[in-house]
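Subject: Dihydrouridine synthase 2 structure
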Amino acid sequence: MIVNNLSLCYHNKLILAPMVRVGTLPMRLLALDYGADIVYCEELIDLKMLQCKRVVNEALSTVDFVAPDDRVVFRTCEREQSKVVFQMGGMGAALLSDPDKIEKILSTLVKGTRRPVTCKIRILPSLEDTLSLVKRIERTGIAAIAVHGRKREERPQHPVSCEAIKAIAETLSIPVIANGGSHDHIQGYLDIEDFRRATAASSVMVARAAMWNPSIFLREGPRPLEEVMQKYIRYAVQYDNHYTNTKYCLCQMLREQLESPQGRLLHAAQSSQEICEAFGLGAFYEETTRDLDARRAKLLARSPEEAEEPAEDTSGIIKMAIKFDRRAYSPQITPKMCLLEWCRREKLAQPVYETVQRPLDRLFSSVVTVAERKYQSTLWDKSKKLAEQAAAIVCLRSQGLPEGRLGEESPSLHKRKREALDQDPGDPTTQEPAVPGELCKKPFVALAGGQESPLEGW
């Protein structure tokens, strides 16, 4: 059996279970504060992570994995280092019907990383099939297996099968983590140990009971809900958690109190500030956001050397301080369209745009490559589309070419429009006119890595 070089002990541990929309950074930190030993993040789709860019967020002291649409898919910090488990894969128990795929995925992960790999399953309709599956899983070399003691189709109101978990624990040599006891067994800290004994498991993973009140991990007993929610909100603001996620988690904690005056204020809240005000934390929000803004401003004011940024070779890049102002251009003719048309007329390869995002303020800068020359605006913009238009303008102005400004003649584009008007629309040989609106209908550009993608924002 293959064993990872690095291991995380899964014996006698209190564990926050992976929960969709719940296991984000504020909840994980709160669970650790209240006594959890290990925290799982919410279940994330592996394809989303492959599309993300790893960003060191100095303002928050976090490491972020940011999707192409600027959404933070996963955020972590030093506080949870060596305690957080990254949960990924198909949704729910999707892989249970494909044991070959389970084995292939786990074997690949175990061989490809020095980090401990764990697996979480539900039980199958028969105990015999369940034991056969977990033995197969154990042979892949994983460090531990978490077992939710319900079948795939069963819901929380169905009783959890402690007997099935116990049979698995007695069969395997690796640690077994018992899960699924929130409804029937776990209402307080002492119940966690009772559930562990009933299942003969090495550790216990708590889901909904921890979602309702993360202080359930405290040996001395849970803290008042108001105190827990305020502490959660503080983490959410400090780590710039999106208000919709913060609101969702607080609603899960309030439960039957959602119709209370405070619950109604939470339900009506449309920002982190309004959530804070609903819980008497308005001053905290103002102070924290002010400090965060000052920190970001200070980081932005540093020179590249002070910021310890990589010394990128920018020799040969033609730069101008240019912003793309939509109001100065025709909606039918944009700088990117003009540049593409010029490249086609000159029989050059179409422009290639490489765009990066600055983590501190999430602004964008783009470099366009045309005829093996690179062009870039020195001004950062608020969107990828605007940054690309600015880069196109730099190229066009460097070449003395029209860029589509209002009142500016663009001979080739306007000539096509005039020729299209002269054609007989009833003539079957007439081709679709290449007017600007049609010219940019489905253009493609080669991205980094040789991929092709439809251009947006023309």
